Amino acid sequence: MLTHEKQIKECEDALSRLKKQNESSDVWSDEEMIRLETRLEKLKAKVYSQLSPWERVTISRHPERPQSKDYIDHIVEGFEELHGDRLYRDDAAIIIGTGRIGGEKFMIIGQQKGKDTDSRLFRNFGMPHPEGYRKALRAMQLAEKFQIPVVCLIDTPGAYPGLAAEERGQGWAIAKNLMEMAHLKTPIIAILIGEGCSGGALGIGIADRVAMLEHSYYSVISPEGCASILWKDSTKNAEAAEQLKLTSDDLTKLEIVDHVIDEPLGGAHYDSQAVFQSVKEYITRENASLKQLPLETLLEERYNKFRKY
């Protein structure tokens, strides 16, 4: 349970006990129960309207939050997964494949963290190796060849920082993606669905439209990493999150993201189906808009968008 949820959970548990008491004897009238439920909803609204940047980060990392594979399973029809970068191996931290969203064919690229110990180890906690970024680039180049729009689902604590990744050219792999995506001759839509940290996120984030879910975050470094560097104290993560301006509100004001997709009260994990539908509608709407642009205009606007960063 997240820290800001404790008061809500206590009220929910108390209300649940009262309802159970009422099953055997009508201690509380229907009107009183309705008033208590109304107070609970007001408490939720108050708590979630006053979230700190760090509390939003904790929501973006919630273990029950929908991940890329969940979006693929619920909004993509006929998904055909592709594997490998044709150079070294298949990186499970990135999923690529084709499928239809709203009747339109897309190339889907999603970062996947995993949900239990085994799957997290298999997915390397959503931290791609160089071959993961090369795999993503392979998918983008296929999409360009067959004139298929690209959808990137961003959710990573960062690219894998280990020695093996550096030996295989982690920095070069990400830089290559930035360069290639800048002039990829097909529409690209990127959506931050959870964590969007550092070059690990930007490696699949150069897009014509960049959106983020309300409680996702996008930052050059994690709050813990920032606190360790600036104050030599990783416990100052809340202060770092405040300074980094990493929330959807901040990034909209800074014109880093184009659109914020609302989440249910409490986060995407409280009503995943509603979030899946919102994301699907955003993709179909923006794709229809991007299809109307001449290719030269599309590329020029994408270039200028990231020059402003």
Explained architecture:
The protein is α/β, with parallel strands linked by helices. The protein has 2 domains: 3-50; 56-307, Alpha-Beta Complex (2-enoyl-CoA Hydratase, Chain A, domain 1), CATH 3.90.226. 50% of the residues lie in helices and 16% in strands. It has helices spanning 6-24, 30-49, 53-60, 68-75, 117-122, 130-145, 163-167, 170-182, 198-202, 223-230, 237-244, 248-253, 272-291, 295-307; strands at residues 77-82, 94-101, 104-111, 150-156, 188-197, 209-213, 217-219, 259-261. Strands 1, 2, 3, 4, 5, 6, 7 and 8 form an 8-stranded mixed beta sheet that branches. β2 (94-101) and β3 (104-111) form a beta hairpin. The two termini are 36 Å apart.
Defining key terms:
309 residues, globular, eight-stranded mixed beta sheet, 14 helices, 8 strands, 50% helix, alpha/beta
CATH architecture of the largest domain: Alpha-Beta Complex
Helix content: 40-55%
- Fourth CATH level, the homologous superfamily of the largest domain: 2-enoyl-CoA Hydratase, Chain A, domain 1
Main β-sheet: number of strands, strand sense, barrel status? 8 strands, mixed
Apparent shape: globular
Distance from first to last alpha carbon:
36 Å
| Number of DSSP strand runs | 8
Compressed to H and E, one letter per element, the order equals HHHHEEEHHEHHEHEEHHHEHH
CATH first level of the largest domain: which class?
Alpha Beta
| Tally of DSSP helical segments | 14
Global mean pLDDT: 92
Uncertain spans:
none
What structural class do the secondary elements suggest?
Answer: alpha/beta
